[in-house]
Amino acid sequence: MAPSNRACVWVASRKVEVQERPVQPVGDNDVLVEVISTGICGSDCHNWESDKVSKQLVLGHESAGIIKEVGKAVTDRSVGQRVAIEPGFACMACEFCAFGNTNVCANLKYCGLDPTDGTLCQLFTCKSSMAVPFPENISWEEAGAIQPLAIAVQLARRAALNSHQTLAIFGCGPLGLLILAVAKAYGVRKIVMFDIEQSRIDFALKYGAHAGFVPPRREESKQPLEFAQEYTKSIIAELGIEHGFDVAVEASGAEVCAQMAICSLKNGGTCIQAGLGKPLTSVPLFLLTAKELNIKGTVRYTPGCYADAISLLSRGLVDLKPLITSTYPLTKCAEAFEAQHARKDIKIVIMNQE
């Protein structure tokens, strides 16, 4: 008799169902994982809202579980091992993979991204290399957030974060807070958060930010760039940060935040664009040249980011527990997505076996 494999499946815009799905066979180099926990994020919610998904798609990509079976050729994984699942299937053959940039693989397939089924199910088969072991001192709830923590680690690499820097983070959603956590672990000397909601700023301050601000509404008579320059100049003066921030991270996707991030930088500073905004955004190109700024995008994670994220967690350098504000059983995945859409929680984790 085939094992039960319930899954959270997109069936229409803003509608998911729990369905039985077949378990994929375990190949020689594969492992079968009993998925215990799965975090949901903005990209999951985007799929949930979409009306353009090509099939009834299993959602989810932030998962962890226990290995139940290993393929014949697998020697470095074992039954009973606790693992986090890397959701990106890189081809390992294109020019980008050859240089270690698997996050931008030319042939990348990604769990939960149409048309590749995701990990929000009870049993998931993957390559053994995609199952990254983690120790028992990491809870299952935290394990469901290892993937976004790995994304924050990748961003820290792109920014070359270090203890001498000042850092501005625009957006106090889950990604912004994870970047804050990693920056604290890396010893960044001053971290300042910006968000439009005071409650999120309050949370960020409790979570370790040195300062936090809610920008005022821009007056209609004032041009966006003028507003961004004046506001960031006033904050820099208030904080006594000479010349501006070393690094600014835009983690909201809002155009005004991208403008403020660039305006907040000192000469030679670095702006990391992490938020997914509009296809076309207006930014002050003159400042990029005049201040010789470095503008970088960041997406997903690269080899070693999972291991680094797990190390930060297991050594207690990052604490994800305060971020996980709700858990739901798989049977109530529809409610979980509604809650994610409502933005009242910081991080929601679904328990796949419940």
From TrEMBL:
Gene3D superfamilies: Medium-chain alcohol dehydrogenases, catalytic domain, NAD(P)-binding Rossmann-like Domain. One of its GO terms (biological process) is sorbitol catabolic process. One of its GO terms (molecular function) is D-xylulose reductase activity. Its EC number is 1.1.1.9. InterPro entries: ADH-like_C, ADH-like_N, ADH_Zn_CS, ER, GroES-like_sf, NAD(P)-bd_dom_sf. SMART domains: PKS_ER (SM00829). It is an enzyme of class 1 (oxidoreductase). The chain crosses the membrane at residues 167-186. Its cofactor is Zn(2+). Keywords: Membrane, Metal-binding, Oxidoreductase, Transmembrane, Transmembrane helix, Zinc. Residues 12-350 form the Enoyl reductase (ER) domain. Pathway: Carbohydrate degradation; L-arabinose degradation via L-arabinitol; D-xylulose 5-phosphate from L-arabinose (fungal route): step 4/5. Belongs to the zinc-containing alcohol dehydrogenase family. Xylitol dehydrogenase which catalyzes the conversion of xylitol to D-xylulose. Xylose is a major component of hemicelluloses such as xylan. Most fungi utilize D-xylose via three enzymatic reactions, xylose reductase (XR), xylitol dehydrogenase (XDH), and xylulokinase, to form xylulose 5-phosphate, which enters pentose phosphate pathway. This is D-xylulose reductase. It comes from Stachybotrys chlorohalonatus (strain IBT 40285).
